[in-house]
């Protein structure tokens, strides 16, 4: 049985405290890319009670995603935006989830993140990551940007950390390990990086500016 | 002196485009902040590094 909105938010406030919960609930956060990073980030933010999420991904759920992404076999072939929105509805029924099944390019960035206080970069390809970071920092200088770089392979999870690069720009990851044939993306380590991104988002919402 | 990714270097007068090319960076995979402001990719060739600049070059790799 689905709890009422009042029951749901009372339970979160009991866990997190009224003030923190109010801050989380007022927030609108964008997650760009719903793969190993983005699907995990979105789940963490929804569980924390973030009030509004904008989920962006052009792709569909594929069998090769199940090793690390928050999808299920009965969602194979579905747009990731739709599949993840359904999963989040089961976790956080009162989170407002808005989806855009589009491929983000440099031209589409202006306007895309209006109303978002924080943007999470969670793309897979290096060029797409660079393009998004460039575009967000250029067109949304007052929005906080949290990006994930370097989480492939099975190197120490302790190498993954969060750094503050610019005024509103945070970088999570080990900085260097690229995915490839000898350096696969494995759920646990990707999830560490995703949790760094989600933690930084929640710290920012709590008023903390340092990583 | 110019501070690049935390390291002091004697690079005043060098353009950002030349520095990136010389360092083996792929301009499509980087984002560059100069004194905490993003440098648009279209301005790499005109951006001349100056004494006291603080440059952060983020080199993106695949995976997510």
Structure overview:
The complex is a heterodimer of chains A (211) and B (64). In chain A, 37% of the residues lie in helices and 17% in strands. Chain A is built from 6 helices and 7 strands, in the order ααβαβαββαβββα. In chain A, strands 3-2-1-4-5-7-6 form a 7-stranded mixed β-sheet, with helices on both faces. Chain A is globular, with a radius of gyration of 16 Å. Chain B is mostly beta strands and 64 residues long. Chain B has one domain: Ubiquitin-like (UB roll) (Roll). Chain B has one helix at residues 16-22, and strands at residues 2-4, 7-9, 30-34, 37-38, 54-59. Chain B has a 5-stranded mixed β-sheet with strand order 2-1-5-3-4, with no helix packed on it. Classes of the chains: A alpha/beta (211), B mainly beta (64).
Brief sketch in words of this structure:
The complex is a heterodimer of chains A (211) and B (64). Helices cover 37% and strands 17% of the residues of chain A.
CATH architecture identity of chain B: Roll
Give the strand order of the largest sheet of chain B, numbering strands 1, 2, ... along the chain: 2-1-5-3-4
Q: Number of folding domains of chain A?
A: 1
Main sheet specs of chain A: 7 strands, mixed
Q: What is the 3D shape of chain B?
A: globular
Mean pLDDT of chain B: 95
CATH architectural category of chain A: 3-Layer(aba) Sandwich
